[in-house]
Amino acid sequence: MKQKLYLIAFLIGYACFSKAQDTPKEILLWPNGAPGSEGKTGTESVRITDQGDHVLSNIHKPSITPYLPSAENNTGVAIIIAPGGGHSELWITHEGYNPAAWFAAHGISAFVLKYRLAKEKNSTYTIDKDELNDIQRAIRLVRNRASEWHIDTAKLGVMGFSAGGELAALAAMRFGPADMNAADAIDRQDDKPDFQALIYPGNIGRFEVSKNSPPVFIAGGNSDRQDIAEGMAQLYLKYKQAGVPAELHIYAKVGHGFGIRPSNKGAVTEWPQEVMLWLQDIGFLK
Question: Which of 56, 103, 139, 197 is placed for a possible disulfide with 191 were both Cys, Cβ 3.0 to 4.6 Å?
Answer without folding.
Answer: 139
